[in-house]
Write a structure and sequence with these properties.
nine-stranded mixed sheet, 14 strands, pyruvate-formate lyase- activating enzyme, three-stranded antiparallel sheet, alpha/beta
């Protein structure tokens, strides 16, 4: 299972919804549309389940690629009928492990999306990939199918750490896949997980410096977290797993920011670092609170002021599709309070911050508690000036707490 961008964004949306749950309902069906539309395609299958993973991934003995191609195309057609006339700015194949998809299926989805919506030459088409040699062998065909950006789940450059994380590849295999990816795709990103139990600043600094030397324009650097329902969570409950001390993890977070800044890949979002112009355009749609269509098992979407959720289990998704012509299990109109809180939570993860006045106009209500902002500004934890509210580096470690205080 990859540290999926689309899935992690869904987790951030869920957190925002929890914050907004008790607010009074007021429809926002007339939310102003954003300039572009993003498409998220979820491939739910993995070779094995990683012990830290709480994403919607499933292990199956066999996968009927033809059945899944038709299913995803049918689900896509349903969303397209509800979003006519849009300009598609990005497609993101996440999972699960979408590099297990037949490249012909990837190409068919890209082609269909181009027929449903307006598509420019600048469209970003990302696919998450595991660095096994079998999947890397598909990179040329995936590039030919239209993928122009790959996000590689290396997760570590150390064999012992990879074994701890339950990864099936070795460090050498991962680096070989990275080399292959850089030959076939114009833009390459890869993920690393840090703050592992017992990991020291010296060890992480050496690994991160090595990673930065590979020359990719984007890195996703995630601290290991214990998510409910995972094998790591069960081990932690049983006293067989001790996470890294919080202060030590905070030190590694600050070290990460320092090293990536110096290398010209500053954090443009809490866990994502890029050279200027190399940011994930797809994920920026999420964080800037634009519309995105989500198709495939477990996929979330945000469509014209409405949240959408697909059936999580692949078999249930196929059954729902056969009955209804789509895989939806939930469609719910967002209240203005829910939408405003989500926009605040997502937007303040970005280094660029938000324009609270513009968002207040969009949702018909203020987003922020001005008194809390003043207090936090005096502490240097929030920056506020006309048209801008952002969390500076000094406040990044306290982001969740700051969001809870700032939300109106």
């Amino acid at each position: 299972m990859l540290a999926a961008h689309g899935a992690s964004s869904d987790k951030q949306v869920r957190a925002a919804r929890i914050m907004a749950r008790d607010n009074a309902p007021q429809s926002v069906n007339e939310v102003s549309p954003q300039d572009g539309l993003a498409l998220y395609v979820h491939w739910p299958f993995c070779v094995s389940k990683c012990p830290y993973c709480d994403f919607n991934s499933h292990v199956r003995d066999s996968i009927d690629q033809a059945v899944w191609r038709q299913a995803l195309l049918a689900d896509l057609a349903h969303e397209a009928r509800l979003l006519p006339g849009k300009r598609l700015t990005s497609i993101f194949f996440g999972g699960g492990t979408p590099s297990l998809m037949n490249p012909g299926t990837v190409g068919a989805i890209i082609e269909a999306a181009g027929e449903f919506w307006q598509v420019g030459d600048e469209i970003e088409i990302t696919l998450e990939a595991n660095p096994s040699s079998v999947e890397a062998a598909r990179f040329a065909d995936l590039a030919a199918a239209g993928v122009n950006r790959v996000s590689l789940g290396l997760q570590s450059l150390d064999d012992q750490a990879l074994a701890f994380l339950g990864r099936a590849h070795s460090a050498a295999e991962g680096l070989a896949a990275l080399d292959t990816a850089q030959r076939h795709f114009g833009r390459v990103s890869f993920d690393l997980i840090y703050a592992l139990p017992g990991q020291t600043a010296v060890v992480w600094e050496a690994m991160l410096r090595r990673a930065l030397a590979f020359g990719t324009g984007h890195l996703s650097l995630y601290q290991l977290t214990i998510e409910p329902g995972t094998r790591f969570a069960a081990l932690h409950t049983a006293g067989k797993f001790t996470p890294l001390d919080l202060d030590e993890a905070a030190d590694l977070f600050e070290l990460t920011a320092s090293l990536t800044d110096a290398a010209g890949l500053p954090a443009y979002e809490t866990s994502n670092h890029a050279r200027v112009g190399e940011e994930s355009r797809h994920n920026l749609i999420y964080w800037r609170y634009g519309d995105y269509a989500g198709i495939g098992p477990g996929a979330h979407g945000r469509r014209l002021g409405m949240r959408t959720v697909r059936h999580r289990k692949p078999e249930n998704f196929l059954s729902g599709l056969a009955r209804n012509g789509h895989g939806l299990v939930e469609e719910e109109v967002l209240t203005s309070d829910e939408a405003a809180t989500e926009a605040l939570v997502m937007g303040l993860r970005l280094a660029e911050g938000i324009d609270p006045d513009a968002l207040a106009g969009r949702f018909g209500r203020p987003l922020i508690d001005e008194g809390a902002v003043v207090r936090l500004q005096q502490l240097g934890l929030i920056e506020r000036r006309p048209g801008l509210l952002r969390v500076p580096p000094a406040g990044r470690l306290l982001l969740d707490r700051l969001l809870a205080e700032v939300a109106a």
